[in-house]
Amino acid sequence: MEYITTTHLRTRSSQLVATLQKGGSVSLIHRSKVIGKIEPAQKSPITITDIKAFEKALAGIKPKKLIPRKDRDKVYRQRLMEKYGKNISRH
User: Fold this and answer.
1) Residue 88 near residue 80, CB atoms below 8 Å
2) DSSP of 11-41
3) Cα 65 to the center of its chain, rounded Å
4) What torsion do the CA atoms of 20, 22, 27, 31 make, to the nearest 10 degrees?
5) How far is residue 13's CA from residue 4's CA, in Å, rounded to a whole number?
6) What pLDDT shows up at residue 91?
7) What is d(CA 30, CA 9) in angstroms, rounded to the nearest whole number?
8) Is 62 left (phi over 0), alpha (psi -120 to 50) or beta?
């Protein structure tokens, strides 16, 4: 696939995705004129150079208090009961 029209974007999206995954680029045509070029995204790996800064960033992301699964399910069911009442299914 070397080109795609704006009207075919919906119908040929699987072909477009396949072409991009192979590393190819596609020209976008609108009213018989090339208006752009669709290229695959460039993958840039993240390199970690400062381990202490990385650990500090992870500490900021980590939740302060971990809730056990049983308690999460209990709170979830309680919220569902408050919102929808007793007529909800357990399965």
Assistant:
1) yes
2) TTHHHHHHHHHTT--EEEEETTEEEEEE-PP
3) 27
4) -60
5) 10
6) 60
7) 11
8) beta
Summarize pLDDT for 13-31 with one digit per residue, the tens. 999 999 999 989 999 999 9
The Cα-based distances of 72 to 49, 67, 69, 84, 89 in angstroms read 37, 6, 5, 18, 18
Residue 85 confidence (pLDDT) above 90: no
Looking at residue 7, the DSSP 8-state letter turns out to be G
**For tokens 């004129």, what's the residue?**
33
Q: Are 85 and 79 in contact (CB under 8 A)?
A: no
Please tell me the predicted confidence (pLDDT) of residue 63: 81
pLDDT at 65: 82
Query: For residues 69 and 43, is the Cβ–Cβ distance under 8 A?
Result: no
Q: What residue has token string 């993958």?
A: 43
Amino acid at 76: Y
Residue 63's alpha-carbon distances to 26, 54, 60, 67, in angstroms, are 44, 16, 8, 10
pTM for the whole thing? 0.46
